[in-house]
Amino acid sequence: MTLVKKNMETILKACDKKKAYNFVVLDVSKISSITDYFIICSGNNEKQTLAIAEEVVEKGEKEGIEFYYKEGIERGRWILLATDDIIVHIFHKDEREIYDLESLWYDDNSLNVEQYGIKNWK
């Protein structure tokens, strides 16, 4: 397993542990110069999205993942966590519907997250 795939697994399992749902993983490496993968998930409220983000950062840092950019933690509506290869988008369920980020980036590049043990995906 490559380091990027291992990091994706760590991040996805951390999100899943805090009951994130509606997972989408997009391989944007061919259409973006800023990252290779987007991980997108939802939470029901601001407290849950913050808990998801905190779990991702905590578990990620234990595995050596450096999140060099963190945005939206204060509000908990759309939290963005960035590594060199992965950008994690943690949305409040209402914000996700408004921005519909995956349809902006979708280019038949969605990955099956079941390979990481995640069952609650789109």
Give your account of this protein's structure.
About 35% of the residues lie in helices and about 25% in strands. It is α+β, with helices and mostly antiparallel strands. It has a single domain, classed as Beta Polymerase, domain 2. It has a six-stranded mixed sheet with strand order 3-4-5-2-1-6. The two termini are about 25 Å apart.
Helix and strand arrangement:
Layout: H1 3-17, E1 21-27, E2 37-43, H2 46-62, E3 69-71, E4 78-82, E5 86-92, H3 93-99, H4 101-105, E6 110-111
Parallel strand pairs: 2-5
Antiparallel strand pairs: 1-2, 1-6, 3-4, 4-5
- Rounded average pLDDT: 86
Secondary structure category: alpha+beta
Mind describing the biggest β-sheet? 6 strands, mixed
Question: What is the number of E strands?
Answer: 6
User: What is the name of the CATH architecture?
Assistant: 2-Layer Sandwich
Strand order of the largest sheet: 3-4-5-2-1-6
Count of DSSP H/I helices: 4
Rg, Å, rounded: 13 Å
Structural domain count: 1
Uncertain spans = none
- Class, according to the CATH hierarchy? Alpha Beta
